[in-house]
Amino acid sequence: MKRKLYMVLLALAMAWSVQAQSLLCNQVAPKYEVRAVWLTTIGGIDWPHSYAQSAHSAEKQKRELTDILDRLQAAHINTVLIQTRVRGTMIYPSAYEPWDGCLSGFPGKNPGYDALKFAIDECHKRGMECHAWVVTIPVGKWNGLGCKSLRNRFPGLIRKIDADGYMNPEDTRTGNYLAKICGEITRNYDVDGIHLDYIRYPENWNIKVSRDKGRQYITSIVQKIHDVVKQAKPWVKMSCSPIGKYDDLTRYWSHGWNANTKVCQDAQGWLKSGLMDELFPMMYFRNEQFFPFANDWAEQSDGKIVVPGLAIYFLDPKEGKWKIGDVTSEMCHLRNLGLGYAFFRNKFFLDNKQGIYDFTAKEFNHYLSLVPPMTWASDKKLQSPASFQVSRNGREVVLTWKNRSSYEDGTPVVTPYIYNNVYASRSYPVDVTDARNLVSARKMENGLALEGLDDEQPLYFAVTSMDGYGNESTPTQENSTFDGMKRGKFGKARWLKCDGKSVKLPSEAKNVDATCFLFETLQGEVVKSAFAKDNILSVSGLSEGIYVVKSLNKRGVSHSLGTFIYKKFQKK
Q: From CA 217, how far away is CA 158, in angstroms rounded?
């Protein structure tokens, strides 16, 4: 008894030590890091909050989503997992399953637009990946539309547990059917990933086969889906959300709730065998039930992408008794391990429970980040962008370039899009390995405009091309602009000075009829207003990035005064 108590105390002490170390977070954010949210559509609990029953109400529903995505973009979130197959029902026009009722208010009714396509397009406009979240085994209430439709089509396939129906993981029809659904999504949409949820035995299923046999059944389903997806588009990421603890560890017990043994989910094996590119383990735990198991996921990642899910819903007193420090220490620990993080779920994040949105946007995600490249699937580099030009039009500096449609070895690009990453630095050449220099990520357009450059120091630019696998080209630097600026070719094509605490306005700002000044992102979002003192504006409360300063008078008229780059951690 004494030894058991000692071991428990020792385990707690070790976990607390890890947690204390995690408070010492890497202050310079990495260039590659998945920052994700689960966007739930079932019952509209994350989105939508209104029904699309006319053209007008459909537009309102769309605006709800774009407002959500704008706020996620402002917090430098780069991945959205949108619930696409809900419970045997869909948010897109499927040949296999009916519409879910979350969109129109009536199960089976068309809302008048394709919500999945709209979500993908809007995510891509904002430089974010969009993954189709497919709920696999559960199909909803026994007499619900989705479950009832499947029971009629596939007699004997659906098993009833309490009031709900579940696809039988031991029936070969389950894998065949789910593969058809995921194939339909992959072929018809420019989705970045297929994200499998609940790809396991239900926790209350009476498993009568051996655990090895059970894992074979679940892995067979994953294999069928993987093969269909990768045959159609090999750059589309395969991912799933396993139970947050893979199995018991040598020193830490999973308390009987784990992926591998309890529900036959061999998620780590799927990474190693190539069936999965990315895992989002649901690590909805604290302390000794979190930190050692996070280490285990990192150690067993096989070089693939691991993005633990964090239970920010417990920050709501109606859901749990967590404190903000429980989550922030986990975020720091994951960053120190080189892992990403995913918030469950979106509403709790945007509702800023206990300040989680503010912490993420203003303190943690100082810079943009890219999703790690899938080098295990392809490591080819695109040819660098061509015809890179930096020109001045009045108070606007415009960057333009052209993408080349082949890789360095001369083979044509296979992914449907070529994305672009833009970097800026006060030193030349621009260091594209430094996340602090990344000013526009995964941009689909071949240009970027910056307003009101007035500064004594020049800012230099570089651009890279990136394919659907996430592999970047070598950068194209603005050689001609560098030489031209040294000769004064562009006159005052410069940025406002910012010392990390305040920004100095140009002298003409003293003469404008301004009641206040606005800080805008490069996307035009006003994020802060301020009053000037001695022609100086405080930048307190801003996230690091590039901002346009505008004056605003009593009549609501604004004028651009300049642009500045805000970095807390300046290079020496």
A: 16
Instruction: Using the predicted structure, report yes or no on whether residue 454 has a pLDDT greater than 80.
Output: no
The owner of tokens 């050449």 is: 429
Q: Which residues contact 143 (CB under 8 A, 6 or more apart)?
A: none
Residue 419 CB contacts under 8 Å (≥ 6 apart), including other chains = 442, 443, 444, 465, 466, 467, 468
Distance between CA atoms of 331 and 343, rounded to whole angstroms? Answer: 10
Q: Confirm if 208 and 217 have CB atoms less than 8 A apart.
A: no
Q: Which two tokens stand for residue 463?
A: 């651009």
Residue among 64, 38, 33 at smallest CA distance from 348: 38
* Residue where the block lists tokens 């979130």: 77
- Token pair 């008229």 is at which residue? 557
Determine the pLDDT at residue 550.
Answer: 85
β-pairing, 129-135 with 447-451?
unpaired
Three-state secondary-structure class, residue 299: helix
Backbone angles phi, psi at 197, to 5 degrees: -110, 145
Name 423's bridge partners.
438, 462
Q: Are 118 and 74 in contact (CB under 8 A)?
A: no
Contacts of 445 (CB under 8 A, 6+ apart): 420
* Alpha-helical regions (H) of 382-510: 479-486
Tell me the C-alpha distance between 260 and 242, whole Å: 9
Q: Which amino acid is at 224?
A: K
Place of tokens 């091309």: 465
- Cα–Cα dist 420/264, whole Å: 41
| CA end-to-end span of the chain | 57
Alpha-carbon gap, residue 87 to 213, rounded angstroms: 26
Residue 272: is its pLDDT beyond 50? Answer: yes
- Judged by phi (left if over 0) then psi (alpha if -120 to 50, else beta), residue 273 lies in alpha
Element (H, E) at 310: strand 309-310
407: three-class secondary structure by DSSP = strand
> Side chain identity at 18, as an amino acid letter?
V
Structure tokens at 123: 């995510």
**Exposure string for 33-55, b = 16+ CB within 10 A, e = fewer:** bbbbbbbbbeebebbbeebbbee
Tokens representing 540?
């307190």
Q: What is the pLDDT of residue 492?
A: 36
How many helices and strands in the chain, by DSSP H and E?
13, 25
Per DSSP, 550 falls in state: E
Q: Tokens 């000037």 map to which residue? A: 532
In this prediction, residue 525 carries a pLDDT of: 73
Residue 482 has pLDDT above 50, yes or no: no
CB 442 within 8 A of CB 421: yes
What is the three-class DSSP state of 35? strand
Residue 466 pLDDT exceeds 70: yes
